Structure prediction request, 1104 residues.
Amino acid sequence: MASISLLNPKAEFARAAQALAINISAAKGLQDVMRTNLGPKGTVKMLVSGAGDIKITKDGNVLLHDMQIQHPTASMIARASTAQDDSTGDGTTTTVMLIGELLKQADIYLSEGLHPRIMAEGFEKARDKALEVLDQVKVPVEINKKNLMEIANTSLKTKVHPLLADLLTDVCVDAVLTIAGDKKQPVDLHMVELMEMQHKTDTDTQLVRGLVMDHGARHPDMPKRLEKAYILTANVSLEYEKAEVNSGFFYKTATEREAFVRAEREFIDQRVKKVIELKRSVCDGTDKTFVLINQKGIDPISLDALAKEGILALRRAKRRNMERLALACGGTAMNSFDDLQEEHLGYAGSVYEHVLGENKYTFVEDCKNPLSVTILIKGPNKHTITQIKDAIRDGLRAINNTIGDKALVPGAGAFEVRAHNELTKYKETVKGKARLAVQAFADALLVIPKTLAINSGYDAQDTIVKLTVEDRLSPELVGLDLATGEPMKPADLGVYDNYIVKKQILNSCSIIASNLLLVDEVMRAGMTSLKG
Amino acid sequence: MDHTREILTFQFGTYANYVGAHFWNQQEANFVYDQENGGNVAEEQLPHNDILYREGRNDQKQTTYTPRMLSVDLAGTLGHLPVVGELYGNFLQLADEQNADEIQKVKELAEQNKLSTHGELDVRKQPAATLSEYQQDLLKGAVNTHDKDYNLAGTCNSWADYLYARYHPRSFNLLHGLVRQPDVQVLGTHAAGVELWQSVSFNEDFCDRIRMYAEECDGLQGFQLLFDIDDGFSGLASKCLEHLNDEYSRASFVLPLHYPRNIAYAQADPRTAHGIRVANSVLSYYHLSEQANMFTPLSTLETIWRNNTLQSRRLPGLHWQPDNLYQSSAVLAAYLDTVTLGYRLRQTPETLLRFCDRVCPSGRKMTAAALALPLGMQQEQDLIDYLDQGASGSLFTQLTPGCEPGNSHIVQSVVARGIPHARLKRPLELAGPQLRMSAYKCDSVSQMLQLYYQCAYHGSLTHAAATPLPLKTQLPFPYEIFETRVAADGFMLPGEAQREPKSRVASAPALAAIQNSSKLGEHLDALHGQTHRVQVAKLQGYSQSGFERDEYETALDKLLEFRDNYEDSQYL
Prediction:
């Protein structure tokens, strides 16, 4: 009897072998659920909820969230997978698969009496060796469009149809390259705005070198389209707030209050006047036009005054768009209208409005040297857009990772096969029972090419044998060609994975798997009730 | 400036959504589609719906009219409702028989759009959610409000079961991963709510939705916030209020709601549960006293924090099951609807800010709620007589737990509804004894109430408003809570008479007030009195979410400072 039951008779607990069995079965269960997702030939799931909500996804992460996991072990693995997604944006399915497989392989030896502690130590050794192999096989790459296209394409092909993937690849690479310029540094992906438009018939994704905002002018007389526009971005309230006027009992007479109200209104009018003055000074006599984009509100009276001057004014812009605007069009976001100068203004070749149902969109395009861009996703319904959006997000991450790593790892299971072979060799140098754990680790890695083969309809054993033999013979890495089921050189087909993703997977999987192995007691405290 | 003064409403938590659902049902029951037959209520005395509602257009080019509202709730509370709402498509109508075809169609369309990597999509369908009988009839357009007994009180599992109103796709925010459990509150502590607010995935999307609503508004005047104070939604609401003040700096009227029963928390015995409840309240009150323009705790319970027997308030003429969420939330919603009518009527100069400031002198931001439903007026009785005879007792029942503002030195705002002008007093020739009353010179309901409270409450300040529009109490309002001595029009039957057993109360007059007096300090004392039993460090829910002890200490100190506002010497 576990000691906890002396303290709390309501506690439930499971010990040693039983605890391990719980953990292993949970990991395997999760692996089974995720198995069919892996790789470009994995199936895409359409989830229909009890209320009729539709979700289309292949993302392991989304699926895990949707399953609302209650099992403690499973939720731990799910969390590891989420962490993987947060830090690298890819490899969530692989994480789950690998953890499951590590436990499965470990189980074989554990059932023969190997102590989990030795297993864990062996895993650690194997992981270090695998990381070494990873460093050896990584291919340093030059950051150019071709290389980035290849990595983005590999990532996107696992999410959507190849035809769509090709289109998205172009968009993603162009987006990142536009922002990165010549610097070859990872970019701030927040500067790529993803804007969605639900359109009945149109499915299209395009890159806008500028900004698209999800709101428009709120005055009927404001221009719908402007060319050669100066852009003033501001965070200044242009609405008359009664707030200060009403609170407190400061007024002796009604006239005094009236005067105060007028003064307050005057204050706002002054601000509007300053904007108008600036507009006149920079635009009068030229063909230039003027746009005001404000993070705070603009009330109808101010809108009216601005509309009379032909100024297009937008209120309540997204906070992040202030930053984006400054990068896309130049200029600075103003926090006050005192001392407005021309150099504070940004510039865009064209600004126009697009109305779709109850939603308005404002395009700010033809910027001089945009350091912030927008990817515009059009789709006939919400779930289509969401699916494309998720894919784009992963594609962008993959590109950014590559720029950061300046290296790639050959994909299509090539690394796993090589690591397997290297580990098998390495095993011989390991003393004692830990070598069994190294072997287990080596075998577990093969789950990736195996699943790729199964998902593409090939025989798993057959493929693995072919691949491992081929790998031993060839100095170059060998991966699985999903179209033929034969070994191939990933470099030839341009199939690459991110270095950081693989590294992260090796690290987190071995740690989680070890932790789960070392669990020798699972308990769940019941209610500790003194009163009964 | 003659534009709409919009108000944005927030509902945080399950019970808040219960109350909210009743509130919006009530709004729609009062829509007048045909001015000609709009009944006997003059146009300017109807609520101005644009304040709370927005007009929109869905992609079928249909015009929609939906509440400006944002709701946050646990996963699993929506039941049959798709999270995107039902007006803008993007979901499958599962109640229909042919939905197998529909799924097939969606699937094919998605494949055409190249969403599948190769081959077909793998469809995984969860079993369709069960529709309550009321919703089934609503779908068929065959709701029978007169005879059919839907037994909503007994069968309703969630507020979605009796929701008549339809929401905009922006409105629902489900907390994925936090699934509602029948016996345990999943999001337990204030600190957990704060953490949730700060998480990127929630925060960005939610703040963007607030911004979208605010962008549409020409003259946003403020916010109404409803939230569950007993669980983690209190933290969410506190943080949200902070955000609103930072970004929008508008008036905010906040209503913390206490569940009518004690909810349990994960891994907590009754004692710890009590500790969590008190800590949640302390932290919320602290935030509200700093951030809100006014806050009014609401509950049908008589007292909270230390109410082991769960003694419920009783309104004369009503009888509801004390722990029933559906029925008790209807009472609170009736209060909310009535008391807010003051600033929602057409052509009223009243604003939310003025409404708040009027009853919160010198920093006394906490106010108490009081309701009279149904109003004890008898059929054929005039208001003047009713006030004359009932002058001895207070007309109200308090709806703020543990608050008795007393009947002197009160600042209050009173709204009366459903009293037709003809029932004010009798015309001169028939007046008889009424002529001798000083109230006879009053020409409107609000004037008469003003005078009444001037006389009845010593040294008090009363602001009264009135509309002849009664509270609609047909389905989905729990009409069954009215006792048999209430007539179908909501007035009391004279003597021992009883309503015909088959007939239902369709509408009722009501009187609601928001009150403030130095006696409310006792409510804060009661809360403070509970705190020394609580050791925050020992509350697991709090220690888990990296909660700082100092923050709790600060909150306690500030609470005492806030209580000082209620000292007699502080007022005038």
Q: What stands out?
A: DSSP finds 15 helices and 18 strands in chain B. Chain B touches chain A through 70 residues (CB under 8 Å). Chain B has two domains: 7-97+150-359, 368-521.
